[in-house]
């Protein structure tokens, strides 16, 4: 049984919403599965049913839960709409999604890298170099590098100094995570080499080089994805 500290109703609802989300992830309760009913959850968390309803309502608003009249409350995603504003994690065919995201990345990221080479300041360039090295170290040591890889691509987008590009960062992040979760470090050397090329081009202000290096990076990734899709379909 969980114990939630006494606090104001609004604070309690917010705290319980967080605890309920953690419970869903920790069990885990898979997408498509039903969570326990209000009575069981109230007993588990040591709160009233009205507080449970408030927490469930909050997670429904965030796109985590869905209430189906007469059937119960179901998990529809493990990612909130804030983390996944377009609802991409709800698409079941991850290979097809990854390929479609690559089509979009090829439209956007080479030009973003080109802008970054033109506009990044010295502090941003230094941080980019650090991120590139950190991703490389994690990759080389066979440690999960995905979060740092996301940070690397996010930083390039911020280096573009374009506010609209920054708004696209969640979409780019979704693409990086989707691909990374499928390939599981199968492009170690290619990733290291092309990350270096992108980074060095941006640092020296070579916009054409940054564009070409990003195209090469994405091309390696796409080729691997297509190969994996073919193997998956056999």
Provide structural commentary.
This protein is mainly α and 234 residues long. The chain folds into two domains: 9-75, Arc Repressor Mutant, subunit A; 88-233, Up-down Bundle (Four Helix Bundle (Hemerythrin (Met), subunit A)). It has helices spanning 9-26, 38-45, 49-61, 94-119, 122-140, 146-159, 163-167, 169-183, 188-203, 207-233, and strands at 65-68, 72-75. Strands 1-2 form a two-stranded antiparallel ribbon. Helix 2 crosses helix 3. The longest helix is centred in the last third of the chain and has 27 residues, at 207-233.
Proportion of residues in helical segments: 55-70%
| Average pLDDT rating | 85
Structurally, how many domains make up the residues? 2
Radius of gyration: 21 Å
Report on the biggest sheet. Answer: 2 strands, antiparallel
Number of helices: 10
Distance between the termini: 47 Å
Q: Give the CATH superfamily of the largest domain.
A: GntR ligand-binding domain-like
Characterize the overall form: elongated
> Structural class, from helix and strand content?
mainly alpha
Task: Using the 3D structure, state the CATH architecture of the largest domain.
Answer: Up-down Bundle
- Low-pLDDT runs of 5+ residues are 3-8
H/E series? HHHEEHHHHHHH
Strand order of the largest sheet: 1-2
What is the strand content? under 5%
Question: How many distinct beta strands?
Answer: 2
């Amino acid at each position: 049984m969980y114990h939630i500290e006494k606090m104001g109703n609004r604070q309690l609802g917010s705290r319980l919403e967080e605890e309920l989300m953690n419970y869903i992830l920790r069990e885990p309760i898979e997408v498509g599965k039903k969570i326990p009913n209000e009575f069981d959850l109230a007993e588990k968390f040591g709160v009233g049913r009205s507080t449970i309803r408030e927490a469930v309502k909050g997670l429904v608003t965030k796109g985590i839960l869905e209430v189906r009249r007469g059937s119960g409350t179901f998990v529809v995603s493990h990612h909130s709409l804030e983390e996944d504003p377009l609802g991409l994690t709800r698409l079941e065919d991850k290979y097809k999604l990854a390929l479609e995201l690559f089509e979009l990345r090829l439209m956007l990221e080479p030009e973003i890298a080109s802008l970054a080479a033109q506009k990044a300041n010295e502090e941003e360039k230094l941080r980019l170099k650090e991120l590139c090295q950190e991703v490389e170290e994690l990759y080389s040591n066979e440690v999960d590098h995905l979060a740092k890889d996301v940070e690397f691509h996010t930083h390039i987008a911020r280096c573009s100094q374009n506010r609209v590009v920054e708004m696209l960062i969640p979409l780019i992040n979704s693409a990086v995570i989707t691909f990374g979760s499928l390939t599981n470090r199968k492009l170690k050397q290619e990733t290291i080499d092309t990350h270096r090329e992108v980074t060095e081009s941006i640092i020296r202000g070579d916009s054409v080089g940054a564009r070409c290096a990003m195209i090469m990076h994405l091309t390696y990734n796409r080729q691997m994805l297509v190969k994996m899709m073919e193997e998956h379909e056999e």
